[in-house]
Amino acid sequence: MAILDAGFFLALAKNAAPNGFLVRARESKSFAVPASTLAEFWRTHRGPAEARFGWLRPRVVDVDRALARRAGELLAATRGSNAMDAIVVALAERLRAAEIYTSDHADIEKLVRNCAHPRCAVVSV
Predict the structure, then answer these.
(1) Within a 10 A sphere around the Cβ of 15, how many other Cβ atoms?
(2) According to the 3-state scheme, what is the secondary structure of the chain?
(3) CA–CA separation, 98 vs 117, rounded Å?
(4) Which CATH superfamily is domain 2-124 in?
(5) pLDDT in tens, 21-54
(6) How far is C-alpha 95 from the geometric centre of its chain's CA atoms?
(7) Do 3 and 100 touch, CB atoms closer than 8 A?
(8) What does the pLDDT read at residue 21?
(9) Who wins on pLDDT, 25 or 72?
(10) d(CA 6, CA 13)
(11) Are 63 and 94 in contact (CB under 8 A)?
(12) CB–CB of 30/57 below 8 Å?
């Protein structure tokens, strides 16, 4: 299982994630994305990014009270300021994801170091 953050979708929109990467990723992984992250995607991205999103078929996970609370705890522990990043890491923790695909490596890595599943790899896109 891999978690996708908003930066991954930005890379899709800019064609920064090469097609070969997408093919390899889809063949070997299942994906999840917090529903809140989709707001960043749908705000401005259309065309090829939409098609690639559909092709990856990520599981969209609602942000419930427990997930939001855990994200807040991670923000407090790291003195972070990006709730979207914290929700991504809290979801990775909940699902015991193997990887998080992100363009915000430093912030996500800092949050991962403070979660209960610190073996989750942070993959830059």
Answers:
(1) 11
(2) CEEECHHHHHHHHCCCCCHHHHHHHHHHCCEEEEHHHHHHHHHHCCCHHHHHHHHHCCEEECCCHHHHHHHHHHHHHHCCCCHHHHHHHHHHHHHCCCEEEECCHHHHHHHHHCCCCCCCEEEEC
(3) 9
(4) 5'-nuclease (3.40.50.1010)
(5) 666 666 767 889 999 988 877 776 566 666 667 7
(6) 12
(7) yes
(8) 66
(9) 72
(10) 11
(11) no
(12) no
Average pLDDT over the chain reads 84
Q: How far apart are CA 51 and CA 111, in angstroms?
A: 30
- Which residues neighbour 91 within 8 Å (Cβ) at sequence distance 6 or greater? 3, 32, 34, 61, 67, 97
Residue with tokens 């992250």: 37
Residues 6+ apart with CB under 8 A from 8: 17, 101, 102, 103, 125
Token pair recorded at residue 22: 């997408």
What's the confidence (pLDDT) of residue 92?
A: 97
